[in-house]
Amino acid sequence: MQLGPIGMRTATVNRARVQALDHAESGVAFALARFQEVGFDLDRFGSLDAEEWLLSDGGGFREVEVDGTNGEYRVRVTGFQRGANGRETTRRVEVVLGTSTVTAGGLFPTYLVDLSKDPYDRNHPAYGYERIDFSVPDMSRWPIPGVDVGSRTVKVISGNFSGSDRFDADIIYIGKGLNLNGPRLTLTVPDGTTIYVNGDFKIGNNITLDFLGGATIYVGGNVDIDGTIRNSGPQALDAPWVVFYVNGELTMGGNSHVGSPYPSTVFLMTSSGSGRVHLHGQQTFYGGIYAPTREVKVSGTPSQTLGGAIVSPTEPDFAGPPGHGESVLRNAFVGEFADRLRSFHLKDPTSRIGDVFVLRWQEVPAN
After folding, report:
1. pTM for the complete prediction?
2. Which end of the chain has the smaller Cβ count within 10 Å, N or C?
3. In what order do the strands lie in the sheet with 88-106?
């Protein structure tokens, strides 16, 4: 590792002292790795000063101590080397580390995040970006394991959800699919509704789902939208979101209309699932698509309307006519529209450690 100044080494001609110094620095590397594992939490790091680690012929490190706060941490380690005569040579070093903090949690920092680009480039909007693996809850039986129903009302539909059904419960479990087709129909979804769909989610071109506020929809299969998803709830920066967790494929096409000019709808594609994301036809979409492990294709007619943000593992395939691809997303991501999408968080923003750098290195007296 050799964090210390080279002058400290050239000034030391005793082989045992050089080895002890090397072992001390190995201890610093060990402590730093352990510290990172516990998220730079001193309480979880614990005490290692009573332990001893052997590295080579009679050499190793011990008396590992870490303390500090507010982005500056001090690591002290004693390295030792025992000779053939049993004599022990020790060197103790102190390294002061500085850390930078990255705020994570926002999924849509800009209109397009291509994760194949270097996320450690500070000039890239995805710097410090965290890949999050979603999972659809086990819907093979009810009640769903791990779901706290509490006082909320529950509606269980063992088969497919049809137009004769209504979203008239806080939690709705659909054992097969939500397949809406046929005559023109508008279904309202109350604020705070949670829907579990064990199969596919399909909305035909005559169907409108009108969300009166926030909602969460878990889909175990594919989502195929030819109709309308409308947001009639509050239009404000802190308004609740309509969030779809999708395990299968996402397709929006035909004359479908999803979202509103003040976006409130996002689709979060599970990393454990499969299937591409495809937006096509004369479709209109306002919102966010988080697909860090999926193929994303955007192809449509000149009347296709796009406004929102896309996260994908590589640059999406924009196969539509000229002027109806990446530039459309970019031009729409401005003002209150951009502020609204940037405000979406899977959970409250959290801070984590970004870069770690050495502020000071010195030898200190052994304990």
Report:
1. 0.68
2. C
3. 48-56, 59-69, 72-82, 88-106, 345-364
